[in-house]
Write a structure and sequence with these properties.
The chain is built from 14 helices and 11 strands. By secondary structure, the chain is an alpha/beta fold. Strand 4, helix 6 and strand 5 form a beta-alpha-beta unit. It has one domain: Metal-dependent hydrolases (TIM Barrel). 43% of the residues lie in helices and 11% in strands.
Length: 360
């Protein structure tokens, strides 16, 4: 993975001091700083689905889930950030300001549109892949991209993944579920097999929470809903045995995997105490955390340290949710506050992600 050209910043230690090579020591080039959680907005997709049967109902459901107060804030927030979401030059300038060398760019989850028919769903995933690839082509050494998978039409999952890879994207983004289907559904087995075979990255990023109107105030739809959806989705992958059957999957879970990593002891206890809980997976649930990658976007240095402890520093990747207001404007600074060891800091800052994104 190519790093940004120009003079290289000295890496800051987690305690805030700086360190360089000892005098006379061999100088090694540090890995690039890689942000694996950054989004692009694709107006072409919204123009495609506007006015189609089911679109109005989907918008109404989203409005109920978020509530009127959140919607009043969301519009101006996105408007202010529109250049960062659509203009590669604005994105690159912001990355420079953050000290980020490389972004893994995924379409806004608002583009999932899990209500569309098969024909429209195919158009959406094709447009998403092609438009994201075009955005990243503005700086291919600094921007890598992901396509979309229409989970509501499982038969399209493999073609969607293949289409994304054909656009020189490194994988696909998926939601935590589709209406009436969890990620443990056997219908997704061909997709998991193909993702494992190709080595594609599968970025798990929820959109919306099925707790619906219970979370329609105070932006609970996001602050509670997103980590809940992450935890449920990962639990389905673990307890159903998907990760046993496809051990080579390269899954990256947004939002630090939600509540699951910090409450994995309860899952282990259920697996040990109850036959129904251990009927699907071979090993204790906590052992599977070291088969999943997680972004660092947990908003708490102590939670980040715990995530590194239970999953391993080689499974945690820098993530900012660029450029939304629920993300970090200074992801490296947020990582530094966690006061990890030097080796762990460097792995999370970019070492692991650079290896993950490197082309064969």
């Amino acid at each position: 993975m190519a790093a940004r050209r120009g003079p290289r910043r000295r890496c800051a230690r987690p305690d805030g001091t700086h360190h360089g090579p000892a005098e006379g020591a061999a100088v090694t080039t540090p890995p690039p700083t890689v942000d694996v959680h950054a989004h692009v907005l694709l107006p072409e997709i919204e123009a495609l689905v506007e006015g189609l049967p089911g679109h109005a109902q989907a918008k109404a459901l989203d409005a109920r889930r978020n509530g009127p107060d959140a919607l009043r804030v969301n519009g101006p927030m996105i408007g202010e950030r529109l250049p960062l979401l659509t203009d590669p030059a604005a994105r690159l300038a912001a990355m420079d300001g953050q000290g980020v060398d490389v972004q893994l760019v995924s379409p806004s989850p608002s583009h999932y549109h899990h209500w569309t028919d098969e024909e429209t769903a195919e158009k959406v995933y094709r447009l998403a892949g092609e438009a994201t690839a075009a955005h990243c082509a503005a700086a291919p050494d600094r921007l890598r991209g992901l396509g979309l998978v229409p989970l509501h039409h499982p038969a399209q999952a493999v073609p969607a993944l293949d289409h994304a890879l054909a656009q020189d994207l490194v994988g696909v983004e998926i939601s935590s579920h589709a209406p009436g289907r969890e990620l443990s559904d056997p219908a997704y087995a061909p997709f998991w097999a193909r993702a494992e075979e190709t080595g594609a990255i599968v970025f798990l990023h929820p959109f919306g929470c099925t707790l619906d109107e219970r979370l329609d105030r105070w932006y609970l739809s996001n602050s509670v809903g997103q980590p809940t959806e992450n935890a449920v989705a990962l639990s389905h992958l673990i307890f159903s045995g998907v990760l046993d059957r496809f051990p080579g999957l390269r899954i990256v879970a947004a939002h630090g995997g939600g509540y699951l990593p910090t409450h994995i002891g309860r899952a282990d206890h259920a697996w040990s105490a109850r036959s129904d809980a251990r009927s699907g997976c071979t090993h204790p649930p906590s052992s599977y955390l070291r088969r999943i990658h997680f972004d660092s976007l947990v908003h708490d240095p102590y939670v980040l340290r715990e995530l590194v402890r239970v999953a391993g520093a080689d499974r945690v990747l820098l993530g900012s949710d660029f450029p939304f207001d629920m993300g970090h404007d200074d992801p490296v600074g947020a990582l530094r506050v966690a006061r990890l060891s030097d080796a762990d800091f460097e792995a999370v800052r970019g070492g692991t992600a650079a290896a993950l994104l490197r082309k064969d």
